[in-house]
């Protein structure tokens, strides 16, 4: 298991959401990249130095510090879409190899290289910017149906990462709540929300949805 590439966003206009700019255009970079906890959502800060988000209401902050997507899943999409998909094209900061990103458990911790520890927090939810960026009508619906969303991660221990760094799973919590399950429960299958209760490391918005569902 390793990081194939570390990807940093280039600001570009965002005609799809009307907020001025987007950082979805992420490209692989050479050399080490500093990773730190960005603090609360609302400032545009993310975990990787040199990157940021512009839709500060919905992206960035502690629970969405780093976004990872598996190269294996990109390859499946590449075959289905019939077009090359380079590392970073889904807006991911880390393109991984040998790691079941969407099958990771909420609260699972990864050590990347010698220093950095990240904790799996929540799935990526597709938006109009993602659909517009890929220039695929119906992409939100298609991506949602596939339920292979990739994972957002919190920064537990800061440090530097770079392409080629090994990834080691150093903690797996004692439940079976995966990123993919959270994605399905919070999109197409809300009846699954009670199944998320054992995952203490869920981000607060999802916890609130679970509590509301459990109260019905």
Any chance you could write out the topology, listing elements then pairs?
Layout (H helix, E strand, L loop, with lengths): L1 E8 L2 E3 L5 E3 L3 E3 L4 E3 L30 E5 H11 L12 E4 L11 E4 L3 E8 L4 H7 L4 H8 L4 E7 L1 E3 L5 E5 L7 H8 L17 H12 L1
Parallel strand pairs: 6-7
Antiparallel strand pairs: 1-4, 1-7, 2-3, 5-11, 6-10, 8-9, 8-12, 9-10
What features would you describe in this structure?
With 216 residues, the protein is an alpha+beta fold. The chain has helices at residues 71-81, 128-134, 139-146, 179-186, 204-215, and strands spanning 2-9, 12-14, 20-22, 26-28, 33-35, 66-70, 94-97, 109-112, 116-123, 151-157, 159-161, 167-171. Helix 1 links the parallel strand 6 (66-70) and strand 7. The longest helix is centred in the C-terminal third of the chain and has 12 residues, at 204-215. The mean pLDDT is 94.
Structural class: alpha+beta
Which sequence of strands runs across the widest sheet? 4-1-7-6-10-9-8-12
Report strand %: 25-35%
Give the fraction of residues assigned to helices. Answer: 10-25%
Oligomer: single chain
What's the total helix number? Answer: 5
Stretches with pLDDT under 50, minimum 5 residues: none
List SSEs in N-to-C order: EEEEEEHEEEHHEEEHH
Largest sheet: 8 strands, mixed
N- to C-terminal distance: 42 Å
Principal-axis shape = globular
Mean pLDDT: 94
Secondary structure tally: strands: 12
Rg over C-alpha atoms, rounded to the nearest angstrom: 16 Å
